[in-house]
Each structure stands twice: as structure tokens, then as C-alpha cells.
Design brief:
Oligomer: single chain
Bound molecules: 5-O-phosphono-beta-D-ribofuranose
Largest sheet: 5 strands, parallel
Number of strands: 5
Structural class: alpha/beta
Length: 163
């Protein structure tokens, strides 16, 4: 996207991309300028700090953070910014995402992370929630979001069951 990104999608590893792609697809479809980065709370803590601390100044308005296992990415990001951080738990270990979900959702009082569902549905909803946040001050985006929601309802109403 050539416009300045409004949403930053961060993942703990390239192996998370398949899940976070569901968020990127929604952002792209709604015409929301975004960027995606691989940064890890454990493996690249200094680079992650730099990214989050400069995010607002670079024009970012919402951050999406997806990670698996002992998923500290979203919480660490939230600790360093007042931008809303939306956390996406990812199934990456034999614990099937429950480890990541609990790591992301159980934040200490005062440092909020909006936690979504495990996996692709959570990633897609993170992007939609980011869109809803941005739509509060962007009437054209609000209309695109409303049309998107209407189209999903229409898909359901057009579903045919076998005779
Ligand atoms: C987490 O560990 C990442 O977010 C990923 O979900 C998981 C496995 O990472 P890799 O070992 O595949 O890089 O930190």
C-alpha cells in the first residue's frame, strides 16, 4: 500500500503468517492502509520496542499482534503504547492455541489488550475491529464496512441446503 499505514500487523514468526493473512486480506479488502512485520517479544525485544515506540508518530492508529505459544507479543506491545492493541492467539504448539489465548487474554489491570479468538477467525475479526475503530472518524470507511457486513448477511441468506 502506498498510503501511510494506519494499521500495523505484527507477528512473532513468519510461521504465523498463514493465520495473520486472514487479517491482511480484510484490511486490503476494506482499503485500509497497513503494514506487516515479523517481530518477536522474545527473539527481537529491542527491535519490537523501537517499532512500537515509533508507531504512533509514523501515523499508525491500531496494532494487531499475533503469536503462538508463550505469546507475550501483544502484551509487551500494549505496555509500550497507548494505541489499541488487538491480540490474536495462534495454535503453534501441542497446546493448540490455549497457551497463546491465556497468555494474551489474562493481562494485568491497566494494560489492556483486546483479545480475539484463536486462529484465522480471530485474525479476521481483529482486522474488522481495527476497521470499526478507524471508522469512528472515517465516514467513507464506515460505509465500506457496512457494505461488507451486509454482503456477509446476504451470503448466509442465499445458502441452499440439499433437498
Ligand atoms: C511464537 O512461537 C511465534 O509467534 C510462533 O507462533 C511460535 C513458533 O515460532 P517459530 O518457531 O515457528 O518461529 O513466538
Amino acid at each position: 500500500m502506498s498510503e501511510k499505514p494506519l494499521v500495523g500487523v505484527v507477528m512473532g514468526s513468519k510461521s504465523d503468517y498463514e493465520v495473520l493473512a486472514a487479517a491482511i486480506e480484510i484490511l486490503r479488502g476494506l482499503g485500509i492502509p497497513h503494514e506487516a512485520r515479523v517481530l518477536s517479544a522474545h527473539r527481537t525485544p529491542d527491535e519490537l520496542s523501537d517499532y512500537v515506540e515509533t508507531a504512533r508518530g509514523r501515523g499508525l492508529r491500531v496494532l494487531i499482534a499475533g503469536a503462538g505459544g508463550a505469546a507475550h507479543l501483544a502484551g509487551v506491545m500494549a505496555s509500550k503504547t497507548l494505541l489499541p492493541v488487538l491480540g490474536v492467539p495462534i495454535s503453534a504448539t501441542p497446546l493448540n492455541g490455549m497457551d497463546s489465548l491465556l497468555s494474551i487474554v489474562q493481562m494485568p489491570k491497566g494494560i489492556p489488550v483486546g483479545t480475539l479468538a484463536i486462529g484465522k477467525p480471530g485474525a479476521a475479526n481483529a482486522a474488522l475491529l481495527a476497521a470499526e475503530i478507524l471508522a469512528g472518524s472515517d465516514a467513507a470507511l464506515y460505509e465500506r464496512l457496512a457494505a461488507w457486513r451486509l454482503a456477509r448477511a446476504q451470503e448466509v441468506l442465499e445458502q441452499k441446503l440439499p433437498d
